[in-house]
């Protein structure tokens, strides 16, 4: 059964550095991202840059296994899973808050909606603008309380990573401006008019 389900999973995009190519390859991803953007009020480029960083667009991404004595597996560093790398307790809060009982961390549309929800909550809790990918990512990584306490300040690697996420969101935003009209066209219009 697991092999059958894996065969149906969407593979990561060929060109992860170009949001237009990502969405051309996976048209349903654009539709889901636009829907989440409309629902939660954040730019499409922000959650996509989070996914690039967190999972590399792998539906079943999870932290590496930890080993005792170098060969006895004893679990993973966290419960993070899927496109968004949402941890189980935070995902459970999302499901409870939104009523999306059948949402799945390995489903792209659900994962992008989760990130939108988290961005919206971050805006409410810590007053971070919904287009500030740098500070939004720090909240995403450290949690709202951790961000307020400044836990990220002593993590140079995390500050660099958040800057990379912010830079990628800016690049994605520019790229999307050049292809969004094309992505908004339905399949019949694309077929008839290119």
From TrEMBL:
Pfam families: SLT_4. CDD domains: Lyz-like. Residues 3-179 form the Transglycosylase SLT domain. This is Conserved secreted protein.
């Amino acid at each position: 059964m697991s092999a059958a389900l894996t065969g149906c999973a969407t593979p990561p995009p060929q060109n992860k550095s170009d949001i237009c190519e990502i969405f051309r390859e996976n048209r349903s991803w654009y539709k889901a991202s636009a829907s989440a953007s409309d629902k939660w009020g954040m730019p499409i480029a922000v959650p996509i840059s989070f996914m690039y960083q967190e999972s590399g667009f792998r539906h079943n991404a999870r932290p590496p296994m930890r080993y005792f004595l170098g060969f006895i597996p004893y679990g993973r560093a966290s419960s993070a899973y899927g496109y968004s790398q949402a941890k189980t307790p935070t995902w459970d809060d999302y499901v409870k808050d939104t009523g999306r009982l059948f949402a799945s961390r390995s489903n792209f549309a659900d994962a992008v909606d989760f990130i939108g929800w988290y961005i919206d909550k971050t805006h409410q809790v810590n007053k971070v603008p919904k287009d500030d990918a740098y500070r939004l990512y720090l909240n995403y990584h450290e949690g709202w309380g951790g961000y307020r306490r400044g836990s990220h300040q002593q993590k140079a690697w995390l500050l660099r990573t958040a800057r990379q996420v912010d830079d990628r969101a800016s690049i994605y935003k520019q790229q999307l401006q050049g292809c969004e009209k094309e992505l908004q066209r339905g399949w019949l219009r694309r077929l008839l008019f290119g």
